[in-house]
């Protein structure tokens, strides 16, 4: 999955990305799914999530984006200026692709190679 910030505004530093990853791992755990890989840049994040078909993708995405947005604003008040209209950190859209047949190692390498800002 890929989530982008509202208006693709550069929001995250390395510290922010580390905390977003922790939050998203907690949400995935609550859904009994596995966040296999995470990485991102200043305006988007990449997630490789293993989840069973009984989990509705839209509910998982809604929780990942909603919980991370709320907690990031609480923990990092300086990010408030990036919360545009209706206090949203994330764009309303997202990308989700199925990779059932792709080797997991290839996917992990792709996500690991995404640049993290300092």
TrEMBL record:
<dbReference type="GO" id="GO:0004803">
    <property type="term" value="F:transposase activity"/>
</dbReference>
<dbReference type="InterPro" id="IPR036515">
    <property type="entry name" value="Transposase_17_sf"/>
</dbReference>
<dbReference type="InterPro" id="IPR002686">
    <property type="entry name" value="Transposase_17"/>
</dbReference>
<dbReference type="Pfam" id="PF01797">
    <property type="entry name" value="Y1_Tnp"/>
</dbReference>
<dbReference type="GO" id="GO:0006313">
    <property type="term" value="P:DNA transposition"/>
</dbReference>
<protein>
    <submittedName>
        <fullName>IS200/IS605 family transposase</fullName>
    </submittedName>
</protein>
<dbReference type="GO" id="GO:0003677">
    <property type="term" value="F:DNA binding"/>
</dbReference>
<feature type="domain" description="Transposase IS200-like">
    <location>
        <begin position="2"/>
        <end position="114"/>
    </location>
</feature>
